[in-house]
Amino acid sequence: MNQAWLEHDGQTYWASGPEGLAPETAVSRLVQGIYEHYPEQARALVRNRIYLSGGKTPFCDGMIRVAAKRCTEIPDNECLGLTGRRAPACPTDSRELPSLLPARLADFSVPTLSLAEAFALCNQLEAEIPRHDSERYKADRPVAALVLDREGKLLGQGINSGSRNRTRHAEMEAIRDAWAKTGQRLPAGATLISTLKPCRMCAALAWWFCDNPAQLTVLYRDFDPGPHGRATILDVGTADRLRWATPEQHALEIQHQGFTTKA
């Protein structure tokens, strides 16, 4: 099992990767946990270099670029040069960050929606997000997202709540909600719908945690001109796509603007 950790003021903050199939990694547990449990210190903590024992995923890379600063992979059999530590199995001067995944659901029902109904629901969820004038809630841009399977079954939904945790974007919450119901990756033929173009972190999660990117469709309403939304792994020809995709996946047209693109 891989681990991710950072050091700050003599403390080691660390997290382990999931034991089974789940839409998270050791890096995402660490970064999300820091924002969740240490909100006042989070910005200072994530400026430290994160170390990872084990392989980095597209999702790890996306989360680092959006919500942290830098990450270095350390082979399992090597010591950490700056501190002399190996990956901390459970050091006494450490704080372990637990998973923030929702609980698996045993009983649930899912409606089947047409694309038009899904677009309307996504707009409705966005409209119902409370608006705040205070500086604290500026990160809560009104964004809503849905996950549908091939038949139009509503597997997951989510809204942005970035003021509480910078990583809690709508698309990530929707994908995790779908996992809580199915325990599986996004199925072949799935559609991710969002009112805003997914950022590099959410795009990477959708790409990495789906059965087959060639059978994934992403529809968004509004373009995000910010630095994290302009060029993601879901966009053809970007650095993220060229780095993580196989040659056969380089030209995949996955993402489309406009709720009516494929209606």
TrEMBL record:
Gene3D superfamilies: Cytidine Deaminase, domain 2. GO terms for molecular function: catalytic activity. InterPro entries: CMP_dCMP_dom, Cytidine_deaminase-like, NH3ase_Bd3614-like. Signal peptide: none annotated. PROSITE patterns: CYT_DCMP_DEAMINASES_2. Pfam families: Bd3614-deam. Residues 109-233 form the CMP/dCMP-type deaminase domain. This is Cytidine deaminase. The lineage of its organism: Bacteria, Bacillati, Armatimonadota, Armatimonadia, Armatimonadales.
